[in-house]
Protein 1
Amino acid sequence: MTAVVPSESEVQEGGSRYDRLIQPARVHGTLYTDPSIFAEELRKIWHKTWVFVGHESEVPQVNDYVRKQLADQDVVMTRDKEGEVHLLINRCAHRGLQVCDDKAGNSSSFRCPYHGWTYRNTGELLGYPYNKGYGGKKQLPLGMGKVARVASYQGFVFGSLAAEGQSLEDHLGAAKGEIDRLVGLSPEGKVSLDAGWLRHKTRSNWKFLAENETDGYHPQFVHGSIFGVTGSPIGELYSDNSTAVTRNLGDGHSENDLRPEFRGFAEPMRWFGTTPDRVPNYVAAMKEAHGEDADRLMIEGAPHVMIFPNLFIAEIQVFNIQPVAVGECVQYATAVQFDGGHELNMRMVSQSIGSVGPAGMLLADDTEMYERNQRGVAMADPEWLDVRRGLHRESVDEDGFTIGTATDETGMRGFWNHYKSLMEAED
Amino acid sequence: MTETHPAAADGPRHDIRFDETSGAVTIGAGKVVESEFASVAIKLDQDGNSVRLRVEDLRTGRVRFLDALELESLVWLGEGHLTQLLDPSHERWRG
Ligand code: FES
Ligand SMILES: [Fe+2]
């Protein structure tokens, strides 16, 4: 891939490399195509910050495990016999073999197929065959690698490969409230992500996906066909007439807040495109659980939030983006399941199949855009991507967050600000 | 005389019914791994991310799950180790 270098006139003197490539109203195309930038991202973002890995509900039983991806790291999420969740790096301490091969299973311990070294599902080395070669049992201070820090919020499990750094709660910041909003739609105050993940390989840089998730400018165009076929009113929420806002939540997180529109309609379950009489059991369970507040929750609906760098909650679906190479990433998608919301859960699964399944319309539409985007930025001219939309009409909301209108690129600018601060930090 | 007690090869004697919702076990006429000394119900459990063996001590209700690697290890357990496990003071009545 040819990297396009900014021309002399476009280079601002004195700034860092990323000062030159990331400007308030535009970003340089090489950010998506330069392998050396991708390598730096792995070190400075993916191996350092908190990355979404999976959900506790994927390992419901003691000794359950699932294989996961944390950027370029193959990770095994396990639940030990005490119920604690671990993220092990899928690598044998002996000769580096990948220890687990199955996608999921239940086992208290893992035995490496190469020479039989056996590990507890906490990563601790249990034993090795023919131990005289090592001077007896328990002589080796070795174990499987571990993701240095593991923490979860509302069951969402994040890992950080850096031993030091801010806490998960600090990293999530204002995005915590969005996760809470999602969980608030469960009659039991809990969500599960156990409906199975669809895996979509995309020949595109991961940042195109992250930026697009709260880009309210594209839905009417890219998703015009699905809105047309289904008669969905969602398209109109992303227009110049909408009262919805795009909010920069800080730390690279952003959201499309559609609540102003739904509050205007004041119809419970409209966010889901349905009415209370079609999901009576769910509505009854919500009223039972939340009393007076149930109507508000069911009117305002679920969040549409992109949590930096890779967790996207799109109302009824959760996406997990993991980079593979400068021009390739994998996007995993699953239907949200509300504990105690069986009636709604079945609908969420079928809607997810329709939108992000193999023949689904939403994700296929977007993927076509990402891939064309990637092919486009490899072209020489123009060198920049424009992100100025709405810059002149941004304002600050009562909580101090920068907001733009429903179709503004406020979220993208928030993403780039944070990205720049991470990439400029010392290794 | 009619022979009613099963030959070992017939396998378990009691028909065990597991109530999936409460987790309770009911024993009808039929199958269980049992002797005059102990009575144990066994079931393949599918609740985890892969199948396990659910073993229940019917006298105490205590349950243990054994995964494939643990079961395989049991098969290879030396007589000495097994005897050690059977020693009542080894785990259960240590006090
Ligand atoms: S590489 Fe795993 S036991 Fe040798
Ligand atoms: Fe889209």
Note: The CA atoms of residues 18 and 24 of chain B lie 6 Å apart.
Protein 2
Amino acid sequence: MSAGVDTSSSGGDKGKVRAKKMNLNVDMAPMCDLGFLLITFFMFTTTFTKPNIMHLNMPPKVDIPPSEIPEIKIKNSLTLILGKDDKIYWHQLEQSDLNASNLNVTDYSKEGIRKEILTAQKQADKDKFTIIIKPADDSNYKNLVDILDEMEITNSTRYGIKDLSSKEKQVYQEKIK
Amino acid sequence: MARVKPKRHGIHIDMTPMSDLAWLLLTFFILTTQFKPKETVTIDPPSSVSQIKLKDHGMMKISVTQDGKYYFSMDEDKYKIPLLEAMGDKYKIQFSDKEKQEFKNISDFGVPVQQLKEYLALSESQRERVQIPGIPGDSINPQIVDWVFEARQVVKKVGDSIDLGIKGDMKTQYPMFKNLLARLQEKSMNKFQLITSSESKPE
């Protein structure tokens, strides 16, 4: 039976005039459909617009005398320079050994930086592997969030954000030329 | 006399209770949903694999636009007026009751405190068109930090706490962000929450 008002009377005998019984029966199915459709819509929109947060804790500014700054072995560290056009430059060298030819370049893809981090992580001493993130001035905010994401994905808990040293700046400029 | 054939009826379920239920649930959802306050600036945040959801209450937020302008917003309406008064005291500006009420109504703003009076006097449609200078955040005039600092003080007075979220646009240049962190760190605020959209974690 189609939706609508059911006015069909249950037949009638010939001759006898009987007051027609009006049987109002509104089909609620479409209304019900609409209600559930709207609920579904609301549920989806409310749960998915909620933004996520990412904790970023920076070290407090304290003056530590240079002699007390812990040394990190080169093998246990990985320096990432976030450059422009979504490129990452990385090295595992002393500042003095750094030059444009041994500064490696990669990107934010799975085969790019993640592989490099995991390789370096394997070679390093357990629990001592430290990643130093150095965003260059021409990188953008997305790059930083992406790299912090990589830290999460690769389970690298020891990382820090620093500015580029003057040597690194110079080498980076040379490299992007 | 011909026998009257019984008329065949299809099975007919009464959908009324189901419909009632659907609409009741719908009403409940609509009433409990908090609508996102209209923001004067659209920011497209980068996505992250982080699973932590943003808190509903007790957040203040600094938004950094693509061109490096800072906006401030706070979701706790009850602290907004004391905050404005505290900022007014600091910068020697008197706000009228009407302005305070207006301040409570706006969700975010991006003007220096000296221009806030003029900004509050504008109508909603005018605010959308007006050129927004952004809240100053350089080292000489770090007003953005004052807002955060004063908000903390105001909230602390009543024994509550408030967190700071930072929302940057994907294309925001890093120096703008670095500058903001540096200014906040000067006031020994070292814990930040970066607001991002969600993304699934790769295996």
Note: Chain A touches chain B through 50 residues (CB under 8 Å).
Protein 3
Amino acid sequence: MDIQTLKEAWWLYLIGVLVSLFIIGGALFFAKKAYIRSKELKMGKEMIKKTVISSVSFSILPSIGIFIGVITMAGLLGIPLPWVRLSVLGALHYELLAVKIATDGITVLSLNIEDFVTIAFVMTIAIIWGALFTLFFFKKYQSKVIDKVDTSNKKSFANLLFQSVFIGLVSAFFGDAFSKIFSYDIKEIQNGLYTGNEIEGSTFVPIIVFVSAFIFMAAFDYLIQKKKMTWLENIQLSLSMVMAMTLAVLLGIGGIY
Amino acid sequence: MDYRSKMHFYGRIFTVLGIFVMFLIPVVTWIVTGIGPDFTRVATGVLALSIIFLPGGIVEVLTYGPILGTSGTYLAFITGNLVNLKIPCVMNAREIAKTQINTEENEVISTIAVASSTVTTILIMGLGVLMLLPLKPILESELLKPAFNWVISALFGALAYKYFKGHIKYTIAPMVVVIVLSIFIPDFVQANVVIVILIAAIIAIVFARLIYNKEMKKGEVQ
């Protein structure tokens, strides 16, 4: 079997299907348990429905972005391996880095079966730490630390504590977009592999996208609160994202990247 | 067994199975072809990557665990794409449902949000693989590239409104710090988002505590 046949082998696609079914099965299992619990807690059906609709609509665009990651890596590794990797504990920047570290100097032409298996093992093992930590320590962490925080009193600091974590998280991504005004090095990818070449530059586009998404959200919020267009509530985030991303496309058409 | 203990039990089983499933491709390829990995390269590769991703993995569980809840954490730490999808998705869902972290209601909402998001991603990926030939030129087109290049900025920009609204005074300190970091060490900020999240979160918590104490004192005096 040569490498070209291997990386597109039918049984690798079969594994992809099995992995997808396993993940969907697990997600539905936990969702069902949560739904039953929601009934016991007398949470309204409407709230659950809202959660599902908003989460699905919210996830579509980022999921397309994740799928583009599969295409990015497909040149070197075929479809099934990136498909599985980005379905189970994956993230594109991690996978590309793993390929780079595991196969330094290897190109799509020189890749052999041993390289392929080596890459697959490195990608799989090195990302496992969060899952292992969850497996062994999460229960203890939850009972010893998280449960000590009382969020029932709305005036307590506990609610503000978690709010602050979110604010920190969002601020960090503002920084990620803002920092690109000062330096943004594009790592060249060819056939699913970092080539080692970097194009140095800077860009205003991500911060424009960030700020415009913020403004679109504010506008939708105005329509929901003041004009009582409550139907917008579940999709305002997705719509704001689409509009901000459309702005990025328009800037690109205008030659601004 | 109460609901949460049950979720830990099922979550642990799911995690073990998930780790097993992750190894299917390398192990089956090894068995079918009879060609194993280069163990030296596997060891050095895993070591090099673990230096970066082991602390990150632990910090992620510590930071995101409270947000995701019990089953949400087990599910999210097997399905991945945490910071770019699962966390913001849960943040959005709990804002809509108005649930408080560490409550049973929040546990339910975050689990359903992570599960819905997971199913959506898997279906889109499956659909994408099925329709790869017609989709590839569209998704890779120069025209659409900027849209998907900056999907994370769009996502967090929209979320920022929800979290900054009504909390402006708590956002000033972390924002000032990330702006300073971005100006002076932009490459570090881009390459170490997990660390920047941690720094910004700690600063946000410290300043929120200071503001909270001050307001409490003021309240007592009045």
Note: The mean pLDDT of chain A is 88.
